[in-house]
DNA sequence: CTCCCTGGTATTCATTTGAACACCATTATA
DNA sequence: TATAATGGTGTTCAAATGAATACCAGGGAG
């Protein structure tokens, strides 16, 4: 048999573990698995064998002697980032304050590597429409990130929050919208009207 | 003290639990917490008190008498969906086949309610640019969903995969791009050139 | 036929674990 | 001043748990 193919019973065990973990928040014990797939409570040895098979075929990883020590290869929690969604950013000095935290959002590490210094905001306005950032979208913002030319940033201008593309000139900084209906905001370097909150690193949208 | 505010020690305990769960894949035992925050191994009673405080303030939920029975309010795994990323969709009858599964992606239930019959695809081409769907984006597709007029769909036309907005006319179906540089594809209802794979329900993009 | 893998049943055992007490110190609040 | 909340220490105990072992049966591969 192929090294990755599962027997019916093994599939059943794997599905049970996945489902248990997703609904309960932690992996099952051997006895919980036994019960879950309709085996007698005394019948842990069978479960042990199934788990050994699943591990050999690469679907799970077991941590020896640890209660509930089962990791799913398909669901690596270490690939997850929990990021707070901020409802309102309040102007303030020296740094703006985050208010109305709506909750948290789980983001795959495919989009965000590290949750440190990262927040999520809801997009208002159409100024970045042509960059594929629409009203209602959720943008993920890295706060303490190096800002490079042409980055899309979340900026405070005169106390207002806005998303724009940044372009540095000789003596000015341009905040460029990606929508011809909006104007470029030009700020002289010596003015104190601008505060760059962070860099937009991901965009999420739900449709329908 | 506010019902939600945490003391320094309580914060420390919560951070430890979060970090443990995310890196190890399952919550810690009381003794692991005790060790993790620098308490003696015998000192479980203190941890019990901290957990009780954290639960009272709504940050965690405990499942009595269960080893590692700690749920994080901020990280509800039940709010997570694990969706396969399909590298290539192969034309085939009666339904296309999914090949080159790149892996899985975790999606917050904020964007996808249910993982059943759901896949993720990478966008190629700019035909939906003005709908905020760009090349390289990941789109989430519901396979067995009711298709309504004006939905954005993944369609097979003459064996080619494409993302378009669907508009039903009297005797034809129009697949409308959201980019003036692309043409509308019109298909007569009696032709067998069209297969609707599913409906696009979410778009994800990484920037930079 | 023999060997290996799968799958189930039954039992034993050392550890681990959550829970419950008792006791103490500090600090903030009423 | 009294009271509650926080935070730490030490101990005991029943229950839960992973591991190991032995036994049995069927099927596929060589």
What topology does this entry show?
Two copies of one chain form a homodimer.
Chain A: H1 8-24, H2 30-36, H3 44-56, E1 60-62, E2 70-72, E3 80-90, E4 97-108, E5 118-122, E6 138-142, E7 152-157, E8 160-168, E9 172-176, E10 185-188, E11 194-206
Parallel strand pairs in A: 3-5
Antiparallel strand pairs in A: 1-2, 3-4, 5-6, 6-11, 7-8, 7-11, 8-9, 9-10
Helix pairs in contact in A: 1-3, 2-3
The first copy, chain A, binds a DNA duplex (30 and 30 nucleotides) through residues 1, 7, 9-10, 29-31, 39-40, 42-46, 48-50, 53, 64-69.
Looking at this protein, list some descriptive labels:
elongated; two-stranded antiparallel ribbon; DNA binding (chains A, B); 9-stranded mixed sheet; repressor (chains A, B); Umud Fragment, subunit A; 18% helix; 208 residues; DNA-binding; alpha+beta; autocatalytic cleavage (chains A, B); homodimer; 2 domains; 37% strand; Arc Repressor Mutant, subunit A
Give an overview in words.
Chain A is of the alpha+beta class and 208 residues long. Chain A has two domains: 8-75, Winged helix-like DNA-binding domain superfamily/Winged helix DNA-binding domain (Arc Repressor Mutant, subunit A); 79-204, Umud Fragment, subunit A. Chain A is 18% helix and 37% strand. Chain A is built from three helices and eleven strands. Chain A has a nine-stranded mixed sheet with strand order 4-3-5-6-11-7-8-9-10, with no helix packed on it. In chain A, strands 1-2 form a two-stranded antiparallel ribbon. Chain A is elongated, with a radius of gyration of 24 Å. The two termini of chain A are 44 Å apart. The model of chain A has no long low-confidence stretch (mean pLDDT 91). The interface between A and B is large, with 52 and 50 residues. The structure holds a DNA duplex (30 and 30 nucleotides).
